[in-house]
């Protein structure tokens, strides 16, 4: 009796190899100060990579699959979604025109996924399985990510920023290191954030104009105002140093982290009801969220 796997496994192997072959020309190595990562050609002259894997300072260079290398500059980076955009110094990709069309498809749980990355410019690949799929979520830093996608795969640090490609050859996102797990930043999130970085160089964030310190209260938690920007939104609302924020839009403050998460791009210009405790007494104030100034 013929072994049924005799035909299936070689066919699967060939299909996966073909998926990698069709993607590898768009994959690059990203070299920054004491840091190595992967990335991909998002548009001609523009490279997307993982923000966490990019050094905070120093020169950046990009090495292509054909062995050529070019210097690049950081066009913008968003710590909250782990997306960074690089612009090649020449404004082109030196003939490497295989930019990636990211798919908005969210993979099915249990489906196979290949991470196509680079090691010193040499293409590399790793096979994994989608281990968790969920809806939109906010990162610990407040970034809005369109879907929760976790991938069971071994990811080297230098492969962070590589493409996650499904069995149909669709690039569905970027593989990054999460907290004790590998995450895929979805294509929809990358296109949205990278588009803003290309145009504006930054992602606008909400701004309260205060320095906060979490404090424990008898009936919950609060955020003590340690400093106030005299020209910021909190000063305009009458908030003073020493006040304790205990409520946000008529709800108890669950944690200071949730307050920070609420200051996304869409929060700018919105009016919120804030409950503060001043000298032991509750006080309601209305505050118009501003835009965080550039550092």
UniProtKB/TrEMBL annotation:
Key words, A-Z: Hydrolase, Protease, Serine protease
GO terms for cellular component: periplasmic space
SUPFAM superfamilies: PDZ domain-like, Trypsin-like serine proteases
PANTHER family: SERINE PROTEASE FAMILY S1C HTRA-RELATED, SERINE PROTEASE HTRA2, MITOCHONDRIAL
Native species: Bradyrhizobium icense
Signal peptide positions on this chain: none
Listed InterPro entries: PDZ, PDZ_sf, Peptidase_S1_PA, Peptidase_S1_PA_chymotrypsin, Peptidase_S1C
Molecular function as annotated in GO: serine-type endopeptidase activity
SMART domains to which the protein is assigned, alphabetical: PDZ
All copies of domain PDZ, residue ranges: 206-280
Official protein name in the record: Serine protease
GO terms for biological process, alphabetical: protein quality control for misfolded or incompletely synthesized proteins
The organism's place on the tree of life at top rank: Bacteria
Similarity annotation: Belongs to the peptidase S1C family.
């Amino acid at each position: 009796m013929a072994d049924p796997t005799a035909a299936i496994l070689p066919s699967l192997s060939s299909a996966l190899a073909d998926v990698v072959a069709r993607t590898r020309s768009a994959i690059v190595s990203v070299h920054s100060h004491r840091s190595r990562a992967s990335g991909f050609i998002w548009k001609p002259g523009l490279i997307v990579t993982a923000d966490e894997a990019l050094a905070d300072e120093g020169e950046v260079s990009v090495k292509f699959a054909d062995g050529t290398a070019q210097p690049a500059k950081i066009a913008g980076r968003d710590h909250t979604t782990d997306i960074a955009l690089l612009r090649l110094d020449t404004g082109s990709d030196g003939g490497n025109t295989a930019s990636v069309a990211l798919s908005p498809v969210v993979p099915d749980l249990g489906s196979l996924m290949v991470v196509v990355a680079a090691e010193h410019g040499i293409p590399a690949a790793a096979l994994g399985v989608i281990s968790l799929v969920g809806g939109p979520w906010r990162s610990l830093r407040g970034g809005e990510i369109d879907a929760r996608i976790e991938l069971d795969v071994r990811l080297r640090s230098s492969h962070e920023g590589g493409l996650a490609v499904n069995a149909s050859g669709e690039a569905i996102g970027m593989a990054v290191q999460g907290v004790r797990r590998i995450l895929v930043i979805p294509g929809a999130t990358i296109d949205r954030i990278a588009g803003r970085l290309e145009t504006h160089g930054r992602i606008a964030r909400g701004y309260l104009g205060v320095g906060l310190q979490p404090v424990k209260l008898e009936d919950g938690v609060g955020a003590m105002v340690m400093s106030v920007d005299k020209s910021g939104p909190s000063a305009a609302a009458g908030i003073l140093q020493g006040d304790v924020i205990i409520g946000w839009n008529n709800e108890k403050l669950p944690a200071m982290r949730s307050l920070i998460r609420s200051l996304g791009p869409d929060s700018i210009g919105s009016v919120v009801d804030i409950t503060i405790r001043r000298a032991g007494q509750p006080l309601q104030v209305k505050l118009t969220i501003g835009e965080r100034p550039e550092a």
